[in-house]
Amino acid sequence: MPSFQKLYNSYNKEVVFLFVAKDKAENVLKFMNKNRFTFPVQFEVSSTPIQLVSGSLPTTFIIDKNGNIVMKKKGAANWNSDKVRTSLDKLLQKE
């Protein structure tokens, strides 16, 4: 989660971040406040689209402007890595 926060801090004006939680809102918000995370969290209100169904939590997707999944990662990862930043920069250049 700290790596998401750093990535969000750097790219939130250029990239749409959708963090979706299945947990109870009060538990998530308590966790967010305790850890001083400021990225926005959405809560599921309907079924997950089949393309985004995963048996693992967390699962993270990077989706391009055309709706194509360009990266899928199950489990924890360093989302503030040079690899991720380079991938985002390349996607942003395709505008």
Explain this structure.
The protein is of the alpha+beta class. It has one domain: 3-Layer(aba) Sandwich (Glutaredoxin). Helix content is 35%, strand content 18%. It contains three helices and four strands. The protein has helices at 2-11, 25-35, 82-93; strands at residues 19-21, 41-43, 59-63, 69-74. The strands form two sheets. It has a two-stranded parallel ribbon. A two-stranded antiparallel ribbon has the order 3-4. Strand 3 and strand 4 form a beta hairpin. The longest helix is centred in the last third of the chain and has 12 residues, at 82-93.
Show the helix and strand layout:
Layout: H1 2-11, E1 19-21, H2 25-35, E2 41-43, E3 59-63, E4 69-74, H3 82-93
Parallel strand pairs: 1-2
Antiparallel strand pairs: 3-4
- What CATH calls the topology is Glutaredoxin
For the largest beta sheet, what order do the strands appear in spatially?
A: 1-2
- Helix content range: 25-40%
What is the H-and-E element order?
A: HEHEEEH
Number of strands: 4
How big a fraction of the residues is strand?
15-25%
Q: From the 3D coordinates, which CATH architecture would you assign?
A: 3-Layer(aba) Sandwich
Average pLDDT rating? 90
Kindly report how far apart the N and C termini lie: 28 Å
Please identify which CATH superfamily we are dealing with.
Answer: Glutaredoxin
Q: Any low-confidence stretches, pLDDT <50, length ≥5? A: none
**Which CATH class applies here?**
Alpha Beta
The number of helical runs is 3
Radius of gyration: 14 Å
Outline the biggest β-sheet. 2 strands, parallel
- Gross geometry: globular
Return the domain count. Answer: 1
Instruction: Label the structural class.
Output: alpha+beta
